[in-house]
């Protein structure tokens, strides 16, 4: 089976297993919320990210209010996340840039998103997929690890995984691949001691028998 056909079959099975509705702050499908939530999420557990993102967005729901927010208040609101002082400064600066350069709106182009502080390719792709429903491939550790473990790609770096999956998948799955592989990575295909006996796509996995 060619990789593109194998990839689509795997994603179909994972969609049946996990569903296709985004979870936590992604469900709001609001570009500003997704941007702020994703910046806060770096190296932080989901529940800590959710608490911080909800606190910030309840008090500062748009770019203008965030730009004017006292830094000390932002630091207090995001204290539950790792590197909270740095992230508080970043989201405040993001608010300022959005107001000054983009009329207070989140841009929907990759290059404009990458120009924002604290925004790399994964964060930018999350905004495109979850905020704008535009096809992109957010590649985190789960997506990179599982794509290689399943033999869909043979890559060393997330950027190469992103390019390979973009070339391999039709638009429908570009909108879902991150969601599905993250859920699978969190519950079954873990970095260490994956639960291969519970894996719905084990028969497609190059590494299953070796774990």
UniProtKB/TrEMBL annotation:
<keyword id="KW-0004">4Fe-4S</keyword>
<comment type="function">
    <text>DNA repair enzyme that has both DNA N-glycosylase activity and AP-lyase activity. The DNA N-glycosylase activity releases various damaged pyrimidines from DNA by cleaving the N-glycosidic bond, leaving an AP (apurinic/apyrimidinic) site. The AP-lyase activity cleaves the phosphodiester bond 3' to the AP site by a beta-elimination, leaving a 3'-terminal unsaturated sugar and a product with a terminal 5'-phosphate.</text>
</comment>
<keyword id="KW-0456">Lyase</keyword>
<comment type="similarity">
    <text>Belongs to the Nth/MutY family.</text>
</comment>
<keyword id="KW-0238">DNA-binding</keyword>
<dbReference type="InterPro" id="IPR000445">
    <property type="entry name" value="HhH_motif"/>
</dbReference>
<keyword id="KW-0326">Glycosidase</keyword>
<dbReference type="InterPro" id="IPR005759">
    <property type="entry name" value="Nth"/>
</dbReference>
<keyword id="KW-0378">Hydrolase</keyword>
<dbReference type="Pfam" id="PF00730">
    <property type="entry name" value="HhH-GPD"/>
</dbReference>
<dbReference type="InterPro" id="IPR023170">
    <property type="entry name" value="HhH_base_excis_C"/>
</dbReference>
<keyword id="KW-0479">Metal-binding</keyword>
<dbReference type="GO" id="GO:0006285">
    <property type="term" value="P:base-excision repair, AP site formation"/>
</dbReference>
<feature type="binding site">
    <location>
        <position position="199"/>
    </location>
    <ligand>
        <name>[4Fe-4S] cluster</name>
    </ligand>
</feature>
<keyword id="KW-0408">Iron</keyword>
<dbReference type="GO" id="GO:0019104">
    <property type="term" value="F:DNA N-glycosylase activity"/>
</dbReference>
<dbReference type="InterPro" id="IPR003265">
    <property type="entry name" value="HhH-GPD_domain"/>
</dbReference>
<dbReference type="GO" id="GO:0140078">
    <property type="term" value="F:class I DNA-(apurinic or apyrimidinic site) endonuclease activity"/>
</dbReference>
<keyword id="KW-0234">DNA repair</keyword>
<dbReference type="GO" id="GO:0046872">
    <property type="term" value="F:metal ion binding"/>
</dbReference>
<dbReference type="InterPro" id="IPR004036">
    <property type="entry name" value="Endonuclease-III-like_CS2"/>
</dbReference>
<feature type="binding site">
    <location>
        <position position="196"/>
    </location>
    <ligand>
        <name>[4Fe-4S] cluster</name>
    </ligand>
</feature>
<protein>
    <recommendedName>
        <fullName>Endonuclease III</fullName>
        <ecNumber>4.2.99.18</ecNumber>
    </recommendedName>
</protein>
<dbReference type="InterPro" id="IPR011257">
    <property type="entry name" value="DNA_glycosylase"/>
</dbReference>
<keyword id="KW-0411">Iron-sulfur</keyword>
<feature type="domain" description="HhH-GPD">
    <location>
        <begin position="40"/>
        <end position="187"/>
    </location>
</feature>
<dbReference type="Pfam" id="PF00633">
    <property type="entry name" value="HHH"/>
</dbReference>
<keyword id="KW-0540">Nuclease</keyword>
<keyword id="KW-0227">DNA damage</keyword>
<dbReference type="GO" id="GO:0051539">
    <property type="term" value="F:4 iron, 4 sulfur cluster binding"/>
</dbReference>
<keyword id="KW-0255">Endonuclease</keyword>
<feature type="binding site">
    <location>
        <position position="189"/>
    </location>
    <ligand>
        <name>[4Fe-4S] cluster</name>
    </ligand>
</feature>
<feature type="binding site">
    <location>
        <position position="205"/>
    </location>
    <ligand>
        <name>[4Fe-4S] cluster</name>
    </ligand>
</feature>
<dbReference type="GO" id="GO:0003677">
    <property type="term" value="F:DNA binding"/>
</dbReference>
């Amino acid at each position: 089976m060619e990789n593109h056909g194998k990839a689509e079959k795997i994603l179909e099975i994972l969609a049946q297993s996990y569903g296709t509705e985004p979870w936590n702050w992604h469900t709001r499908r609001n570009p500003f919320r997704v941007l702020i939530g994703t910046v806060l999420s770096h190296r932080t557990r989901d529940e800590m990210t959710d608490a911080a993102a909800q606190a910030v967005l309840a008090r500062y729901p748009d770019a203008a209010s965030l730009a004017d927010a006292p830094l000390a208040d932002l630091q207090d609101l995001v204290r539950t996340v790792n590197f909270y002082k740095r992230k508080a400064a970043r989201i405040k600066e993001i608010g300022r840039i959005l107001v000054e350069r983009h009329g207070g709106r989140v841009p929907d182009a990759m290059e404009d998103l990458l120009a924002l502080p604290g925004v790399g390719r994964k964060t930018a792709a999350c905004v495109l997929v979850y905020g704008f429903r535009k096809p992109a491939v957010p590649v985190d550790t789960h997506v990179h690890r599982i794509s290689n473990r399943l033999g869909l790609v043979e890559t060393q770096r997330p950027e190469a995984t992103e390019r390979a999956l973009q070339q391999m998948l039709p638009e429908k799955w570009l909108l879902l691949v991150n969601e599905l592989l993250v859920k699978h990575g969190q519950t079954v295909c873990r970095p260490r001691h994956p639960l291969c006996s519970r894996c719905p796509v084990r028969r497609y996995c190059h590494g299953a028998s070796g774990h």
